[in-house]
Amino acid sequence: MNIVKNKRSIVFFHFLVWIILFSLPYLLSSGQSEALQKVLVHSWIPLCFYALIFYGNYFILIDKFLFREKILLFVVLNVIMVAVFVLVNNEIKTFLVDQLIRPEIKGQGPPKKLFIYVDIISFSVPVVFSIALKTTQKWIKTEALQKEAENERLQSELQHLKYQLQPHFFFNSLNNIYAMVDVSPEQSKEAIHSLSKLMRYFLYETDQKEVDLNNEITFMVNYIELMKLRFNQNVNVIYHFPQNAKEIKIAPLLFVSLIENAFKHGVSASESTTISFDMKVENHTVIFRSENKNFSKSTADRSGSGIGLENLKRRLTLLYKDRYTMDIEIGNKNYITTLAINL
């Protein structure tokens, strides 16, 4: 439908331009004696030849020769066409002047050769305009196709990143549940039920480009509660999220990697620890902050393997470009991550 509208707009634009070009000479000369005859001889007939030259190049010669790098043939054909139309126009003009213009003014004015030189220049102008217009249209079309191809590539990459995130997320969740099976079967059942809710969100909500921030917060709370089931009371988890964020839309699954990372590095088997998550919305900017202790992991621990954060950084770059910041502070055995997204 858009293509049809564009074609109609182009046809209308061409029609309007030629109406103006044919009307102006007559309107500017109205009131003068023999105005119509002079306009016919000096304006309308040349304009018909201009149109033939313009559209001959626009529809045929430029595509077949110039854009296919047959430049010499293109130039030769245009020289021949311009020369023929100049000669024909000159013959028609001479004939009509003899028939329509009063005898007393014939033979006056500049020499005939001067008119031929002027005609050669003026008849070359439609060639230049047709090249300029056709080249501009081709450039615009090429740019549009490149943007479309780039958008498709980015969408494909985003989809790939999301699919990469899902098995990574479920792998870690299943690891957590597996660790609880022998110790607390009842908690394991509760964890599996919680995981089913998270899977439902993954399957049915995250196909959209953006989701309600409320839904994303519900997902994060469920995931945090699932993670808490694995740990004893030595791990204190605190979180504060906005209570009502229905009108705010955001790309899904942007914060889960930070939550995973906090649990991965912020829990020790021998020390008590606190993990905190905080989110607030200020002036259309969502700010998420996680803080935890930074306990070193053994080389055998492959939970996460760094996939989550790298995935997150790439997705943020593709989705929000220069509209986000992510700062990581490591000091005094604390690990603090602050992600701010300007919506």
Which helices and strands occur, and which strands form pairs?
Blueprint: H1 2-29, H2 35-66, H3 71-100, H4 112-181, H5 185-204, E1 211-212, H6 213-228, E2 235-240, E3 249-250, H7 256-265, E4 273-282, E5 285-293, H8 307-320, E6 324-331, E7 334-342
Parallel strand pairs: 2-4
Antiparallel strand pairs: 1-3, 4-5, 5-7, 6-7
Helix pairs in contact: 1-2, 2-3, 2-4, 3-4, 4-5, 4-8, 5-6, 7-8
* Physical arrangement of strands within the biggest beta sheet: 2-4-5-7-6
**Strand fraction:** 5-15%
The main pleated sheet reads as: 5 strands, mixed
* Count of separate DSSP helical elements: 8
What is the arithmetic mean of pLDDT? 80
CATH fold label of the largest domain: Heat Shock Protein 90
SSE ordering? HHHHHEHEEHEEHEE
Number of strands: 7
Task: Detail the poorly predicted runs.
Answer: none
Q: What distance separates the N and C termini? A: 31 Å
Helix content: 55-70%
Structure description:
With 343 residues, the chain is α+β, with helices and mostly antiparallel strands. It has two domains: 2-146, no CATH class; 184-342, Histidine kinase-like ATPase, C-terminal domain (Heat Shock Protein 90, 2-Layer Sandwich), CATH 3.30.565.10. It is built from eight helices and seven strands, in the order αααααβαββαββαββ. The strands form two sheets. The chain has a five-stranded mixed sheet with strand order 2-4-5-7-6, with helices on one face. The radius of gyration is 37 Å and the shape is rod-shaped.
